[in-house]
């Protein structure tokens, strides 16, 4: 398969509905809303990119935020004893929140290109600790390949991670809320 001609750039307001649709297909309807992208666009701690093809059609999106250590660990719901020392010594942590790639474009390197751009941006921002919450249902983990390819290590597996989510969504695996899937908490040092 030929590598597509893809442009990686910051998210665009004109594409918010495209991101919501793409993420909804893969992570669940209502998981991300247009208002979430508006909030990210106005958050100086957010780093988000889109991948577009030659016709300026969205084929991928990645979202992240930078949080202080205490806020990051609370969001991740990870126990201190399962957290790597380099994270506990970091003032700020980059949280790799969401990635979604068009089903027809998976396997073409778009996800890898988005992650590389995100990691470069984290490094330019002076971060050295990156975390990611990976969604797992049954034996399927949504981004295991990306985590392995970019040397992330899983430090904790949390059952029913989204059970008490204040903004329930329709999970592709569980159906109607609440989601009862497991989350795997990954970290990487850069």
Number of helices: 6
Order of helices and strands: EHHEEHHEHEEHEE
How would a textbook summarize the main sheet?
A: 8 strands, mixed
What gross morphology would you assign? globular
- The radius of gyration computed from the alpha-carbon positions, rounded to a whole number of angstroms, is 16 Å
Head-to-tail CA distance between termini: 31 Å
Helix content: 25-40%
Beta strand count: 8
Q: Determine the mean pLDDT.
A: 92
Proportion of strand residues = 25-35%
Give start-end ranges of low-pLDDT stretches. none
Structural class: alpha+beta
Please provide a written account of the structure.
- With 190 residues, the chain is of the alpha+beta class.
- The protein has helices spanning 16-27, 34-41, 69-76, 85-88, 110-124, 144-149, and strands at 7-10, 49-52, 58-68, 92-101, 129-137, 140-141, 153-158, 182-189.
- Strands 1, 2, 3, 4, 5, 6, 7 and 8 form an 8-stranded mixed sheet that branches.
- The mean pLDDT is 92.
Feature tags:
eight-stranded mixed sheet; 28% helix; 6 helices; 190 residues
Describe the secondary structure blueprint for this structure.
Elements: E1 7-10, H1 16-27, H2 34-41, E2 49-52, E3 58-68, H3 69-76, H4 85-88, E4 92-101, H5 110-124, E5 129-137, E6 140-141, H6 144-149, E7 153-158, E8 182-189
């Amino acid at each position: 398969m030929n590598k597509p001609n893809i442009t990686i750039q910051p998210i665009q307001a004109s594409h918010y509905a495209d991101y919501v649709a793409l993420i909804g297909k893969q992570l669940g309807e209502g998981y991300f809303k247009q208002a979430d992208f508006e909030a990210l666009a106005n958050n100086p701690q957010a780093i988000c990119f889109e991948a577009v093809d030659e016709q300026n059609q969205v084929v991928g999106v990645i979202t992240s935020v930078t949080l202080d250590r205490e806020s990051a660990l609370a969001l991740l719901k990870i126990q201190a004893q399962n957290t790597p020392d380099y994270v506990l010594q970091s003032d700020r942590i980059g949280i790799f929140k969401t990635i979604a790639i068009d089903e027809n474009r998976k396997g073409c390197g778009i996800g890898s290109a988005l992650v590389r751009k995100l990691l470069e941006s984290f490094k330019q921002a002076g971060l050295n600790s990156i975390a990611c919450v990976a969604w797992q249902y049954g034996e399927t983990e949504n981004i295991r390949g990306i985590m392995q390819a970019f040397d992330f290590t899983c430090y904790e597996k949390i059952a029913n991670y989204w059970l008490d989510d204040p903004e329930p969504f329709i999970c592709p695996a569980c159906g109607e809320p609440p989601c009862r899937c497991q989350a795997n908490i990954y970290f990487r040092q850069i």
